[in-house]
Specification:
The chain is mainly α. It has seven helices and no strands. The protein has helices at about 5-25, 30-60, 65-90, 95-125, 130-150, 160-170, 180-190. Bound molecules: fe (ii) ion (2 copies).
Length: about 190
């Protein structure tokens, strides 16, 4: 699959999750919102990481306009990172959790749209089929590597919720009392990063 098709597919996956999240929010179904939030974060983390690792370094070589779009893209990813870490520190019942999720969704929708309408067409013009296919392979590999890493039982995954909670307390991780075992493991991993 060529690089741009792969990235557009990722965008569509996240858009679909966003639309499910919005439906859950209307009901409202907090449990469903929470589980969708976890899937959304997982997708976004992998997607933004592989863009920054493989795709942006190639894209910014194309010209000044592409370089500016890439620089903006990196900052937009950063805003999403900040929002994700703030959301992880809140309870899903909290109004701020819901508000931050809505802002995150709007930001990502805008960002993906901009990549697809401004950056990708430039690259389709400049990069030939072979180059796009090669970048697609590299993105696929980076994605698989990251998916495996996140599926690997890390040292936190082997711990009980109580052990994880104790560590979260030591690290003063906000929102820990309402977190599931998986949330705690993820928050600790983030705190280590
Ligand atoms: Fe992006
Ligand atoms: Fe993207």
């Amino acid at each position: 699959m060529d690089a741009l098709t792969l990235l557009e597919k990722d965008h569509d996956t996240v858009r679909e999750l966003f639309s499910q999240f919005k439906t859950a929010k209307e009901r409202p179904d907090t449990n469903r919102m929470r589980s969708l939030q976890q899937r959304i974060f997982h997708e976004l983390e992998i997607h933004t990481a592989i863009e920054e690792e493989v795709f942006y370094p190639a894209a910014e070589q194309v010209g000044q306009e592409a370089e500016e779009l890439v620089n903006e893209g990196v900052e937009e990813h950063h805003v999403v990172d900040v929002l994700m870490s703030e959301i992880r520190g809140l309870e899903a019942e909290d109004d701020a959790w819901v508000a931050k999720m809505s802002v995150l969704i709007e930001n990502v929708e805008h960002h993906a749209e901009e990549e697809e309408t401004e950056l990708f067409p430039k690259l389709r013009e400049v990069f030939g089929k072979d180059r796009l296919a090669e970048l697609g392979r590299q993105l696929e590999q980076a994605k698989q590597r990251r998916q495996q890493a996140s599926a690997d039982p890390s040292r936190y995954a082997a711990m009980s919720r109580d052990e994880l909670y104790e560590r979260a307390k030591q690290r003063d991780i906000p929102g820990r009392s309402g977190m599931t075992k998986d949330d705690l493991a993820k928050a600790l991993e983030d705190a280590d990063a």
